[in-house]
Amino acid sequence: MARLPRLTVPGYPHHVIQRGNNRQMIFRDAADHEFMLGLLTEQAKKLQVEIHAYVLMGNHFHLLATPQTQDGLPLMMQSVGRSYVRYFNRRHQRSGTLWEGRYRSTIVQSERYLLACMVYIDLNPVRAGMVAQPGDYPWSSYAHSMGRRNDPLVTPHALFWSLGNTPFAREAAYGELVRAGIVGADQAQIGQSVHAGWALGEADFIAALQQRTQRRVAKGKAGRPAIQTG
């Protein structure tokens, strides 16, 4: 079955993942990570895409991003992808494709899943067994969220600001969320939704989102708009 077209809606958070072809390494050293962060920072600003969280893993990366225009997110991913491949192939003396096809993404219901997605992204290196604590991994937005560095790529979402009235309160509250982790059902839904391209949210959110597009936004019976989160 043909893959669904990606769904992009301005003003909504999107969970994005881009993998290396055949799960090959796309970041070999610190210079590669830094070059990608520079590209993302430049293009996100240029194309009006707010990045709320990210993690650069060895063979893939995640973003939690809100585009302000219809074309901002796809244009950003296209520009970053092409520029990074040219850089990577030249620097590492290779040729050919680097990405596993097009990036995958899903729209996220802010009130229900945005903070959970942030935690999911920040805990990725821990789940992969690369580090014991998320703060031990240098290539994510966790340090910015915890007030340990100022990351020019990150624009905090309004729900993150609502965690507390002071930076210390927000950082403490977010730290508690990360320490608590994600319940198994939420973790599975977050992972499955971004790979399948189905929107991530509760039934009323899915129903309202479906009214904005002819493209099905959630898994359901063929020919019927889906109103369940699956």
How much of the polypeptide forms β-strand, as a percent range? Answer: 5-15%
Give the mean pLDDT.
92
End-to-end gap: 19 Å
Q: At the first level of CATH, what is the class?
A: Alpha Beta
Tell me the domain tally: 1
Under CATH, the topology can be stated as Alpha-Beta Plaits
**pLDDT < 50 stretches:** 221-230
Given the C-alpha coordinates, what overall shape results?
Answer: globular
Instruction: State the strand order across the main sheet.
Output: 2-3-1-4
What structural category characterises the helix and strand content? alpha+beta
Count of helical segments? 9
Order of helices and strands: EHEEHEHHHHHHH
Structural write-up:
It is globular, with a radius of gyration of 17 Å. Helix 1 packs antiparallel against helix 2 (72-91). It has one domain: Transposase IS200-like (Alpha-Beta Plaits). It is an alpha+beta fold. It has helices at residues 30-46, 72-91, 110-122, 124-127, 142-145, 158-161, 167-180, 184-196, 203-210; strands at 14-19, 49-56, 60-67, 104-107.
Secondary-structure map with pairings?
Elements: E1 14-19, H1 30-46, E2 49-56, E3 60-67, H2 72-91, E4 104-107, H3 110-122, H4 124-127, H5 142-145, H6 158-161, H7 167-180, H8 184-196, H9 203-210
